[in-house]
Design a protein that fits this description.
Blueprint: E1 6-8, E2 11-16, E3 20-25, H1 36-41, E4 47-52, H2 66-80, E5 85-90, H3 92-103, E6 108-114, H4 134-143, H5 153-163, H6 166-181, E7 195-200, H7 208-217, E8 221-226, H8 233-236, H9 238-251
Parallel strand pairs: 3-4, 3-5, 5-6, 6-7, 7-8
Antiparallel strand pairs: 1-2, 2-4
Length: 254
């Protein structure tokens, strides 16, 4: 996917297909390639897939928070000239999508969240990767998935290099605090955007009861489970994820 990135103004993004725009929001450690399955599937179904690089580590520390990232997404939608969009977010990306839906409902057609933070305070991890401890970081990366083999050396190396980058570490901790501060529990009952919740039954980062709570609090939500699946369903079971998401889009007339 790297080779296909477009750069326009302050935005760098991947784009494929034509049709209703689905903007994908990656998580804290999530590369754009985590969504390869979605990016390959939906353009053939009449959707335009757009994956912007979120400025998680490049924005001023004062703008390193969920609310500022949601505004960045709104500005990107305006920049691209879209009227209303569907947002899909994993982990922190789901939280940004939820906050965007709260602040800018007029921009939203629908929302899909998977392994999202926003309710559960430990969603950012319970102890931050210790610098220089590769084995610890490997174990943390493996815990994200039901099948630890999904945490390839490439993924572990990426997390390891981030944990050893002082600025990135400070920004990661800043975001984690912001995620706790921007808890969505009181907002969700007032949010009436159609929402699809797809969750791994074996998610250790945001456990299944978090998905149940989202479903209970969001008035127009549908909840779908993927078995033998951890925190990043779209990576671990891309085919099943795509089928569930597509069926929901059709059901919701989106």
């Amino acid at each position: 996917m790297k080779k296909d990135l477009k750069k326009e103004g302050r935005y760098t993004y991947f784009e494929a297909g034509e049709g209703t725009p689905i903007i994908i929001l990656h998580g804290l450690m999530g590369g754009l390639s985590n969504f390869d399955g979605v990016a390959n599937y939906f353009p053939e179904k009449g959707y335009k897939i757009i994956i912007p690089e979120l400025p998680i580590y490049t924005q001023n520390i004062l703008k390193t928070n969920v609310k500022a990232f949601a505004k960045y997404v709104k500005d990107f939608i305006t920049f691209k000239g879209y009227d209303r969009v569907i947002l899909l977010g994993n982990s922190l990306g789901g939280h940004i999508g939820l906050y965007h839906a709260k602040m800018y409902p007029e921009k939203m057609l629908g929302l899909i969240i998977t392994g999202s933070s926003g309710l559960y305070e430990s969603a950012m991890g319970d102890g931050y990767p210790r610098r220089g401890d590769y084995d610890y970081i490997q174990k943390k990366a493996e815990d994200v998935f039901y099948d630890p083999k999904v945490a390839t050396k490439e993924i572990v190396d990426e997390v390891y290099s981030m944990a050893n980058d002082r600025i990135k570490l400070i920004k990661t901790l800043t975001i984690a605090k912001s995620a706790i501060r921007h808890n969505m529990a009181k907002d969700l009952p007032k949010m009436h955007i159609p929402t699809c919740i797809i969750w791994g039954k074996n998610d250790k980062v945001t456990p299944p009861d978090v998905a149940e709570e989202f479903h209970k609090l969001l008035p127009h939500s549908s909840l779908y489970w993927i078995d033998k699946c951890g925190h990043a369903a779209m990576m671990e079971h891309p085919d099943e994820f795509n089928e569930l998401m597509y069926a929901w889009l059709k059901k919701s007339d989106l």
